[in-house]
Amino acid sequence: MLVYPSGIDVSSSALRFLAARLRERRRSLGTRWRRLTAGRQALLTLAHLRNGQPYAQLAAGFRIGTTTVYRYVTEAVELLAALAPTLTEAVRAASMKAFVILDGTLLSIDRIAADRPFYSGKHRKHGMNVQVIADPKGRLLWASPALAGAVHDVRAAREHGIIDALAEAGINCWADKGYQGAGGTVRLPYRGQWDSLSTGQQAANRSYAKVRALVEQAISTLKSWRLLRKLRCSTTRITGLVHAVLTLHLASSD
C-alpha cells in the first residue's frame, strides 16, 4: 500500500484537547509504553473521524497494526463520548439563549433491505435518527443518542426527553412539521396548503422557515466529520461516535 503525507481540516485545539485527555488516561492507568504517543494517537483518531479513513489505511500511514488502530480509536472515542454534555447540561446552556432550534437528521448506514427498523421512509434509505439542538445562530449545542431510522422525529424527541426538558426550563423551541403534536414550548409553522393559508400565515411561515433553516448549519457541522456521512460499523457504536464528535466540536469552539 502506498503512503503519502496529507492534512486534516481540524483545529489544532481539538488535537491538543484530545491529546491531553489521552495523557491523563495513560497516567491513571499507569501505562509506561505504547506504539504511539498520546499526540499521535489523538491525530490517528481525528484522521479517522474527520476523513473517515478505514483502519487499514491508517495502519499503513502510522506504521502500526490494524488491530492496534482499532484499539486506539475505540479508546479515544469512548473517552470523548464520556465527556459529551448531557441533555440537562445542554438545556442549562440553552437557557441563556432566546430560543433553540430542534431538528432530526439521518446518518446513513450500510444495511440491506431486510433491516426494516433502520429504514427511513422520509429519506428512503437506511440510517440512524439523531436529534440536533442549535442556538439562534445555528451553532451546534447538543446531539442525541442515535435511534433506528424508522423512528419519527417527534417520537425520538419524546424518547430522549427533549420536549419535557425544554418545557420545564421554559425555553422556546422552533421545529418543523415533523414535530406536530409535540406540545410543550415547541413552536410549529401553520399547517395546510399554501393557498389555504391567510396572507398573515404565509408571511409568518416564510419568517419561520428562515429561522428554522439555521439548524442546517448545526447538522452540517456534525456531518463535516466525514465518518458520519456513511457509517459501516455496528449500530451500537454510532451513539459513541456522534458524542465523540460533539465533544471535539465543543472543545475546539470553546
From TrEMBL:
Alphabetized UniProt keyword annotations: DNA recombination, DNA-binding, Metal-binding, Transposition
Tell me, what is one Gene Ontology molecular-function annotation carried by this entry? metal ion binding
Boundaries of each Transposase Helix-turn-helix domain copy?
35-84
Ranges where the DDE Tnp4 domain occurs: 102-249
Give the protein's recorded name. Answer: IS5 family transposase
Q: Which cofactor does it need?
A: a divalent metal cation
Keyword check for Transport:
no
Family according to the record: Belongs to the transposase 11 family.
GO biological process entries = DNA recombination; transposition
